[in-house]
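As a warm-up, study this chain.
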Amino acid sequence: MSTYYQPPAKESPWMCANCNVPMEVAKVDVAYLGNAFPVELLKCPNCGLVFIPEDLALGKMVDVEKQLEDK
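Now compare it with the structure written out below.
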């Protein structure tokens, strides 16, 4: 999935809602139906909260889910 998704800039204006610290780009494993995919997303360095942008959640992730369900 990471080859189709442009990760956010290293300097992020996004803040963690739990810790109130800047979120950082980090490699995160996204799993669905027993399959895991490494993706670079914004993640809180303290609590691990991950931010998934709407365009990714409603775009590429939906496409991958449909492909996995069709198998």
